[in-house]
């Protein structure tokens, strides 16, 4: 892929043969950023997984940087009221299911009570391909709506491995202090390490890097975090 002049100038600051501490890597990412907008700092972790395995969970990063998410909750009766009191953006049951089935997707996170999942599950073709299907593993299928929404509003973020075994996660903005971005990245890396399958052998984390939206990736040494 041919890169522009600004990218070529930025990459001159990078030693491709070196792995950096998390903080030094983040500082370099900030130094190499050149876009006119506030770039996102992204973490990329390659893990060793069998075809049948995946890594998926959630984490609340200590330093938030994203706009408040629009949360949709599928619930009935008292639980619907609980969701509204807890600050859900949208709450409903059959009417909301039909609205989503019709193509309405004006929300960022979807939560449901267990009793709703029989009907919500029918939205798989709509919610599944967008990664929005409620799931007990990510604590988005729950009876504790108050607790779940409190965590989501704090910035609880889902992470999951893709088909190539890489976990991609935003951990900050270039405009943030390097120390805060590094703390977010370190926590995210440790949480991913904790999801090592019980039958995994050898190294679980194969490679780790951080990069801004437009900039080159910087390799991280993660042994210090194990």
- The backbone outline, from C-alpha atoms, is globular
Tally the beta strands: 9
The gyration radius over C-alpha positions equals: 20 Å
Mean pLDDT: 91
**Topology order in helix (H) and strand (E) letters:** HHEEEHEHEHHHEEHEE
Beta-strand content bin:
15-25%
Task: Give descriptors for this structure.
226 residues, alpha/beta, 3-stranded parallel sheet, globular
Describe the structure.
By secondary structure, this protein is of the alpha/beta class. The chain has helices spanning 5-11, 22-32, 77-85, 94-101, 117-120, 124-127, 145-154, 178-194, and strands spanning 40-47, 56-60, 71-74, 90-92, 109-112, 156-160, 166-173, 205-212, 218-219. The strands form 3 sheets. A 4-stranded antiparallel β-sheet has the order 7-1-8-9, covered by helices on one side. Strand 8 and strand 9 (218-219) form a beta hairpin. The longest helix is centred in the C-terminal third of the chain and has 17 residues, at 178-194. The protein is globular. The relative contact order is 0.26. The model has no long low-confidence stretch (mean pLDDT 91).
Compact overview of the structure:
The chain has 226 residues and is of the alpha/beta class. The chain is built from 8 helices and 9 strands.
Give me the secondary-structure topology.
Layout: H1 5-11, H2 22-32, E1 40-47, E2 56-60, E3 71-74, H3 77-85, E4 90-92, H4 94-101, E5 109-112, H5 117-120, H6 124-127, H7 145-154, E6 156-160, E7 166-173, H8 178-194, E8 205-212, E9 218-219
């Amino acid at each position: 892929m041919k890169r522009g002049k600004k990218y070529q100038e930025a990459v001159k600051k990078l030693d491709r043969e070196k792995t950096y501490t998390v903080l030094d890597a983040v500082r370099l990412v900030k130094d190499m950023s050149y876009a006119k907008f506030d770039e996102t700092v992204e973490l990329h972790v390659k893990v060793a997984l069998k075809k049948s395995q995946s890594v998926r969970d959630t984490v609340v990063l200590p330093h938030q940087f994203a706009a408040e998410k629009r949360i949709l909750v599928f619930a009935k009766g008292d639980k619907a009221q609980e969701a509204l009191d807890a600050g859900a953006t949208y709450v409903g049951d059959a009417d909301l299911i039909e609205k989503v089935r019709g193509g309405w997707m004006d929300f960022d996170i979807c939560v449901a009570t267990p009793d709703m999942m029989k009907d919500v599950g029918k939205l798989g073709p709509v919610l599944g391909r967008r990664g929005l299907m409620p799931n007990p593993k990510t604590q988005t299928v729950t009876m504790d709506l108050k607790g779940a929404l409190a965590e989501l509003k704090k910035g609880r973020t889902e992470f999951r491995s893709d088909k190539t075994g890489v976990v991609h996660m935003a951990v900050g903005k270039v405009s943030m202090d390097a120390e805060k971005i590094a703390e977010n990245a370190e926590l995210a890396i440790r949480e991913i390490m904790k999801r090592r399958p019980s039958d995994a052998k050898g190294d679980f984390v194969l490679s780790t890097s951080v990069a801004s939206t437009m900039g080159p990736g910087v390799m991280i040494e993660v042994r210090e975090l194990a």
